[in-house]
Amino acid sequence: MAEIDERLDEQNPTPEEKTSEPEFTVEELLAQLQAAKAENKRYKDAVTKASSEAATWKKQLRARQTQEEQEAEAKREAEEERSNHLKAVERELAMMKATNRYLKQGMDEKLAKECAELEADNDIDTLMEKIASHRDASISAAVKKAQEELLASRPEINAGHGENGGKEDEDPFKKAFLNPDSY
After folding, report:
1. Distance between CA atoms of 161 and 158, rounded to whole angstroms?
2. What is the count of structural domains for the chain?
3. What's the CA gap between 176 and 183, in Å, rounded?
C-alpha cells in the first residue's frame, strides 16, 4: 500500500509544482499581439502585390496577342452569342406550337401557355398533372351542362291534376259523397 501512495505522489505534482508554470505578463501578451498584427499586415500586402502583378501580366498578354488571336476570340464570342440566340428562338417556336396544340384541345390561353412552358422546360410530371386536372374539370363541366340541357328540354310534369285540370270541386270522391245518386 505504501508503494501505491509513493507512485501517486510521483504522478500528481504538488500545488507548489503546479504554480511553477510560466505566467505571461500583460506587456508580453501585448507584444505578441503586435507581432501577430504586423505579420497579418505583411500577408495582406503580399496578396495585394501579387494581385497587381497578375493584372499587369494579364494586360501584357493581351497586348502581345496578335491580331489573328484577337479576331479568333471575337469570332468565338460572336458564335457563342449566335448559338444562345438560336436556342432562345427554337424554344420560343416550340412554345408557340405547343400553345396552339393545347388551345385546340380546349384549354384556355393561360393554361395552354403554362403547359407549353412546362413542356419546353421538360417538366413532364407537372405537365401531366395540369393536363389531367384540366381533363377532369372539362368532363365535369360537360356532364353538368348535359344535365342542365336535359332538364331544360323535358316538359313540365303535371302529376295529380287529373282529367279535370286539378279543380277541387270536381273531386270524384267528394262528388259521390255529396250526390250518391249520381253514380
Report:
1. 6
2. 1
3. 7
